[in-house]
Amino acid sequence: MEAGGLGKVYQDGEIIVRQGEVGNAMYVIQSGKVEVVEDVDGKSVPLAVLAENDFFGEMALFEDQVRSATVRALGTVRVLTVDKKTLLRRIQQDPALAFRMLEHLCHRVRKLDSELGKISTAR
Amino acid sequence: MRRLTGVNSGSWLTNVSAVLSRLPSTFFRSRRPESDLSRQLFPEAENGNGKFKLENGSRIGVIGSGPAGSFFSHFLLDMTQRLDIDVGLDIYDPRDFAVTGPTGCNMCGGIISESLVQMLAAEGINLPTTVVQRGIDSYMLHTDMGSVRIDTPLHEKRIAAIHRGTGPRDIDAKDIKWFSFDRFLQGLAVDKGARLVRDRVDAISWQDGRPRIKTRRGLEQDYDLLAVAVGVNSPSLKLFQETIPQYQAPQSTKTFICEYKLGPKTLEKYLGDSMHVFLLNLPRLEFAAIIPKGEYATVCLLGEEIDKPLIKSFLESPLVRKCFPPEVSPEPPPCHCSPRINTYGAVQPFGDRVVFIGDSGVTRLFKDGIGAAYRTAKAAAETAAFAGVSREDFRAHYWPKCRDIDFDNKIGKAIFALTRQWQKRPRDLRGIVRMVALEQANKKRAPHMSMVLWDLFTGSATYGEILWRALHPGFLSRLVWNVIVANVPLRRGKLP
Q1: Tens of pLDDT along chain A (123 residues)?
Q2: Domains annotated on chain B, with CATH
Q3: How far, CA to CA in Å, does B340 sit from each of A66, A91, B41, B159?
Q4: N or C, which end of chain B is more exposed by having fewer CB within 10 Å?
Q5: Pick from A81, A93, A96: CB nearest B154
Q6: What is the pTM of this model?
């Protein structure tokens, strides 16, 4: 790991977030890529590949639910953990901090809409 | 014309206003913004010749491009763009952060706190490895009663060691592998559309209720809002005190910072990825730290008017010498400085169309100055974008954020007074070191003392939160128990 690298290094295949676990942090990718997979009826369904500067795990911060998917490293990846308590306290003091996360969630909804549209058209 | 500027014009009413507004600095240091007396005396100044709102075509001037100036510019442009308001923003700073040595340096320890690293990541600002010279994952606490290591709660590198400029004055060109942190932030503001003007602001006046700046090269420009982010070491601060009478600059004290060139291998061997903090029984020394970076170790001394004898005592202390190879001289290296840091925040760091952010306003005591620059800059930007730029807008939306920091600093002063007492009392210190050592050796133990010290040294939590946790009966009873056990003669030295 480079001396100036922030966060924690995960090796290829290492699980960062496990589906069904209680989450108390979100993660920001500093370098490398991760794969988001959902376990559906025992089958591992790939949902997305995220890269540098992408967030994951933020859904568990805003709703009282367990992790909806598993996230694992694709190659060596460096990920920074953002604590739930620290983040929510700061959002309470500075609501504008949530802009970027709202933007990110909007982007994700837009992407899902587009995917659903493609599936409907294919049928 | 804003008549408040006519202090020397001979008008008795103006002089009375100036005297009244200066009263607090002469007789007492009020923490409350001044009353609306000057507005009652000069009602025409209330609205100038326009509205106190940013709108399409508004111009904003930012004086100083350290973290506060760059954060303010970045966030204000981001917010106005979201609101579809087209504004022009100029940043004035004669310094070039790409230059090594004092010309491009902002004289600072160079630590980005754990909480700020996380908040910036949430903002989408990830600090690259070309700027962060070393990720810090632990603290080594050195006291006269022993040393103990405190790991980050998640065993993760979440503290960033950076250089504010491109590097110390004796850096070799081949060793310049990292960018200046201040230059990185400047880049964020420029990417959002800020215009960087490499010129010094020499004069400020008021024109139809709007601030007008004049630079050394003769440029004159009127602004709808002026953000002052010059820091307490800037001679420009005097300019604002003279032009904006209600503003009283922060009180400050002298510190000491120096850069030892050790090279990566020596840094790894002697300091590792830990920041080394010292609680030594040296008079007037509140806190000292050695911060490993890429090629250098930064030594930082904070306290009351740090002078040469105190610097000598610290650098020659056996505990400090252990952090350096024997061949390194205890004399201060070529790159050293004695910048001032805030001890009390400014009084009324705002007015109509003017706001003081970062060190020229209010900052955190001894810790997390860059975090405070981020908070005050963002609060000022939010006020300007969403509320307005009048004194009342800043009083209602910006001042409460400053007041929170200011109040927390008062608690911080009490905590540092307590740590000063610890430094003088070996028995207490022995108990504290024992408590931390046991917590760090057995990860199943709740790390109460480790977290209190971690947050105190890193600036990750407010002083209020730290005090609240330290006053918990469970914490106090454990501390008393450890002090007793650590001072039983047979058990001394039996730390894990």
Answers
A1: 577 899 999 999 999 999 999 988 999 999 999 999 999 888 889 989 999 999 899 888 888 889 999 999 999 999 999 999 889 989 998 998 888 888 888 988 998 899 889 888 887
A2: 3-97+182-251+344-411 (3.50.50.60), 102-179+256-338 (3.30.9), 425-491 (no CATH)
A3: 49, 32, 36, 24
A4: C
A5: A81
A6: 0.87
